[in-house]
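Newbie here. four chains, one complex. Structure please?
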Amino acid sequence: MAVLEDRGHRSTAPRRAIIRFLQGKQEGFTAEEIGRELPDVGRATIFRTVKLLLKAGVICRLNLPDGAPKYSLSRVEHHHHTVCVRCGNVGEFRAATIERLMRAIGGDIPGEAVGHRIELHIICNQCLLEADSR
Amino acid sequence: MAVLEDRGHRSTAPRRAIIRFLQGKQEGFTAEEIGRELPDVGRATIFRTVKLLLKAGVICRLNLPDGAPKYSLSRVEHHHHTVCVRCGNVGEFRAATIERLMRAIGGDIPGEAVGHRIELHIICNQCLLEADSR
DNA sequence: CGAGATACCGATACTCAGTATCAATGAACC
DNA sequence: GGTTCATTGATACTGAGTATCGGTATCTCG
């Protein structure tokens, strides 16, 4: 909640509103969605705040398989995302094995490895159910 | 070369020009870059052709860490990308270990795994050199 | 080869995510 | 309470990609 103050930013009404809105969010969200939910907050401010939260590590950005941008709360520090190729819902997962493996691969590749990003494309349970019942 | 004809598309001058241009490309490229190189080809046609080549599997789309879109030739069927966080150049790699691991993780996660995408963020050798010499 | 159907073209106008600008406001700190 | 300066919203812009549409070129078939 005091993520921004901790980083030397001011606590303003729009910022509080955005953070409060995101607090409940289980699924990923788009910037446009925030705007729809908080019509009193200017568009620019939404993007500015999203950027701050990104830098603070509170949320993270990912792309759906078609490239559409989406954000999600970072519940755990280092993690990766599952994204449903049907409905676009995103989830998180961690796997220590991956981290070890990526470090090993980083050593085999020219240049210095500084990080990675992994997206697991799935069809989520709900979409599977809907497909069945059709 | 006859990728498009093989899929029932027509062989037209703009398409041939784009494919010929991409043939040489080692690094990743953007749509805008194609347009700069082939000013006689309309913008819409570039995006249309890029989309066809994507569907045909000839090229693939990826995002730089900041979300900027980029394309790269698919030299091998299933592969992943390294992207330099300094200069944005992209490379390819494969690692059978990853594929096995991702399949295992897919089994542990609710829903049906259908694919994945992995980006390894690096600082490429050239950027390392430049950083040293400064 | 000639002709017709239609896939494809370029120009243009649009959408969508995100950024730049700028005058007005309101946190923070004294 | 007053001052400073980060922040705001409005607005205009950029960059990637899509929709539309009248005109053109490719493919196919006779």
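Moderator note: Chain B is about 45% helix and 25% strand. The beta strands of chain B are 59-63, 69-73, 80-84, 90-93, 112-123. Thread marked as resolved.
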